[in-house]
Design brief:
Elements (H helix, E strand, L loop, with lengths): L2 H27 L5 H31 L4 H33 L4 H8 L2 H11 L6 H18 L8 H23 L5 H23 L4 H6 L1 H22 L5 H8 L2 H13 L5 H18 L6
Helix pairs in contact: 1-10, 1-12, 2-3, 2-8, 2-10, 3-7, 3-8, 4-6, 4-7, 5-7, 5-11, 6-13, 8-10
């Protein structure tokens, strides 16, 4: 495995760990505030946290930027803004569909359906002329089996909440592909900051129309919101953007889907939940899928 791919895989795995623990924070936070309020505060917080990082990293890139012409700088700013807005809209829709859908379905179904993005990404990628090797497709199949064993404990049926979460999975797939398109062309931290501010602004507008936000409720939920905003948003999605540079989006989605395994482990460690034999087999299948996806394809 190339050194660059190993670094990208490690960053995406760390992202999956952060997101997996964030499920606990989201569950606790929803006891105090509505989905739009939660996503509004966490997204704005995530965007604000990245502003100091942008100024800090700007010093290191200043010498390189001086070699770029004014026309190129304008083009880069337009691409950055377009990428941030596109990512922000996709993230807003996906995260809010997920939060709302969970209210009408079980957590097990929601986890499995959301993780279907590992299948949706390569399917959408085919329409964008992105080829997938048989090894990756086998990894996708293993991952789906693992997620089923891990998340589904009841008879599967399609309901209103299931449809909303499936829409969320499609939107997360779109988000992954948007990041794949823009991340090699722009500053990852800046694009991450813009996407969170856009996501927060759109969620805030929906919050004003659909909910009755109260500052006291937000203060009661400050711990889970702080984790979701600083770690899940500010750190997690930035690592995703940086880690996806040069990484096949299907492999990236497989690694990110490990958040389902991490969420089960986090529930066990933080909430006292136990792993059944079925869930343990699901984790094994997921890790096998990740390892298989990282094996180099044979050159034709």
């Amino acid at each position: 495995m190339k050194k660059g791919n190993l670094r990208s895989s490690a960053l995406l795995l760390l992202t999956a760990c952060i997101w997996g623990v964030a499920f606990v924070a989201q569950s606790v936070g929803m006891e105090y505030v509505g989905p739009f309020t939660f996503n509004f505060v966490r997204s704005i917080l995530g965007g604000l946290v990245l502003i100091p990082c942008i100024f800090f990293l700007k010093r290191e890139k200043k010498a390189k930027a001086e070699k770029v012409s004014e026309e190129e700088k304008k083009a880069q700013r337009k691409t950055l803004l377009a990428g941030g807005i596109c990512c922000g809209v996709a993230l807003c829709l996906a995260s809010n569909f997920q939060q709302i859908g969970i209210q009408y379905t079980t957590v097990g179904k929601a986890g499995f359906i959301t993780a279907c993005y590992i299948v949706i990404v390569p399917v959408i990628g085919l329409f964008m002329k992105k080829k997938c090797s048989p090894m990756i497709w086998l990894s996708v199949l293993l991952a789906v089996v693992g997620l089923y064993l891990l998340c589904i404990n009841e008879q599967f049926s399609i309901g209103y909440g299931d449809i909303l979460v499936f829409v969320c999975a499609i939107l997360f797939s779109v988000h992954i592909l948007i990041v794949d398109y823009f991340s090699p062309k722009v500053d990852g931290v800046k694009m991450s900051c813009i996407q969170f501010l856009v996501c927060g602004l759109l969620s805030g507008i929906a919050m004003l129309f659909a909910e009755q936000p109260q500052l006291s409720a937000v203060l009661l939920a400050w711990k889970p919101i702080a984790y979701a905003g600083i770690m899940s948003c500010g750190v997690g999605y930035t690592l995703q953007i940086v880690g996806q540079k040069g990484m096949d989006p299907t492999i990236a989605s497989l690694i990110l889907s490990l958040e389902s395994c991490i969420s089960v482990l986090a529930g066990w460690l933080l909430l006292g939940q136990t792993l059944s034999m079925r869930e343990g087999l699901g984790c094994v299948a997921m890790f096998a899928a990740i390892i298989l996806a990282q094996l180099p394809a044979k050159e034709s």
